[in-house]
């Protein structure tokens, strides 16, 4: 089975969707460890409750990004993962880190990339008057939220939405997206090919819809 390490920074609801899918037999992976850069977050409790090793690596204890990422690599590689999953991990990663895990590093981002890279995506989608919004799964490269996207879910922006209602609508789709994307990766159906993605051997021209 594919060994997976999940990186989080907080609530861990996406992590929970992966733990549930793995426990339910719908996700053929072995989640070996969950690592948080923030101490005391709910996602660590979720990992422990599922019997998964939960590790805190507080970025504030390191002199800089290079030092933190080197410690993070060491903590991850103890588990010899075939895939590293960013699930609400809110730290920018160094190019060295991204290169080390090239082709086996996934992120979920709460927008229809390439729209709204970075933070506050729901607020920005509302401010721009978007009628559609959503979430994306992509391979991670050194470019922030810039790696190749292969799966997206769309939701409508509804009259009266605020950032909270819109985020909740997107999150519900996130919880469907990530288990599917990781199952595809585990089955060898999806792989990074430079700045593109192959699905069942064919280069994708556009992200697949959920
Ligand atoms: C999710 O909406 C995820 O897409 C987003 O943070 C949230 C984490 O929620 N990630 C990013 O913004 C990455 N830049 P969770 O902790 O409940 O999974």
TrEMBL record:
<feature type="domain" description="Formyl transferase N-terminal">
    <location>
        <begin position="3"/>
        <end position="182"/>
    </location>
</feature>
<comment type="pathway">
    <text>Purine metabolism; IMP biosynthesis via de novo pathway; N(2)-formyl-N(1)-(5-phospho-D-ribosyl)glycinamide from N(1)-(5-phospho-D-ribosyl)glycinamide (10-formyl THF route): step 1/1.</text>
</comment>
<dbReference type="Pfam" id="PF00551">
    <property type="entry name" value="Formyl_trans_N"/>
</dbReference>
<protein>
    <recommendedName>
        <fullName>Phosphoribosylglycinamide formyltransferase</fullName>
        <ecNumber>2.1.2.2</ecNumber>
    </recommendedName>
</protein>
<dbReference type="GO" id="GO:0006189">
    <property type="term" value="P:'de novo' IMP biosynthetic process"/>
</dbReference>
<feature type="binding site">
    <location>
        <position position="107"/>
    </location>
    <ligand>
        <name>(6R)-10-formyltetrahydrofolate</name>
    </ligand>
</feature>
<feature type="binding site">
    <location>
        <begin position="12"/>
        <end position="14"/>
    </location>
    <ligand>
        <name>N(1)-(5-phospho-beta-D-ribosyl)glycinamide</name>
    </ligand>
</feature>
<keyword id="KW-0658">Purine biosynthesis</keyword>
<dbReference type="InterPro" id="IPR004607">
    <property type="entry name" value="GART"/>
</dbReference>
<comment type="function">
    <text>Catalyzes the transfer of a formyl group from 10-formyltetrahydrofolate to 5-phospho-ribosyl-glycinamide (GAR), producing 5-phospho-ribosyl-N-formylglycinamide (FGAR) and tetrahydrofolate.</text>
</comment>
<feature type="binding site">
    <location>
        <begin position="90"/>
        <end position="93"/>
    </location>
    <ligand>
        <name>(6R)-10-formyltetrahydrofolate</name>
    </ligand>
</feature>
<feature type="active site" description="Proton donor">
    <location>
        <position position="109"/>
    </location>
</feature>
<dbReference type="GO" id="GO:0005829">
    <property type="term" value="C:cytosol"/>
</dbReference>
<dbReference type="InterPro" id="IPR036477">
    <property type="entry name" value="Formyl_transf_N_sf"/>
</dbReference>
<feature type="site" description="Raises pKa of active site His">
    <location>
        <position position="145"/>
    </location>
</feature>
<dbReference type="GO" id="GO:0004644">
    <property type="term" value="F:phosphoribosylglycinamide formyltransferase activity"/>
</dbReference>
<comment type="similarity">
    <text>Belongs to the GART family.</text>
</comment>
<feature type="binding site">
    <location>
        <position position="65"/>
    </location>
    <ligand>
        <name>(6R)-10-formyltetrahydrofolate</name>
    </ligand>
</feature>
<keyword id="KW-0808">Transferase</keyword>
<dbReference type="InterPro" id="IPR002376">
    <property type="entry name" value="Formyl_transf_N"/>
</dbReference>
């Amino acid at each position: 089975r594919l060994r997976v390490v999940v990186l989080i920074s907080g609530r861990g609801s996406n992590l929970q969707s992966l733990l549930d899918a793995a426990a339910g037999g719908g996700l053929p992976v072995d989640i070996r460890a969950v690592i948080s850069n923030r101490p005391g977050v709910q996602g660590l409790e979720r990992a422990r409750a599922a019997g998964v090793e939960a590790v805190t690596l507080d970025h504030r204890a390191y002199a800089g990004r290079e030092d933190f990422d080197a410690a993070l690599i060491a903590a991850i590689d103890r588990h010899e993962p075939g895939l590293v999953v960013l699930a609400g991990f809110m730290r920018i990663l160094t190019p060295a880190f991204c290169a080390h895990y090239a082709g086996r590093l996934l992120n979920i981002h709460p927008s229809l990339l390439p729209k709204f890279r970075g933070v506050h995506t729901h607020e920005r989608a509302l401010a721009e008057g978007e009628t559609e919004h959503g979430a994306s799964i992509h391979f991670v490269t050194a470019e922030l939220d810039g790696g190749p996207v292969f799966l997206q879910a769309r939701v409508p922006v509804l009259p009266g939405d605020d950032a909270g209602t819109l985020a909740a609508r997107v999150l519900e789709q996130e919880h469907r997206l990530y288990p599917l994307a990781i199952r595809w990766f585990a089955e060898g159906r999806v792989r990074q090919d430079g700045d593109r993605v192959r699905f069942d051997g064919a280069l994708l021209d556009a992200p697949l819809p959920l």
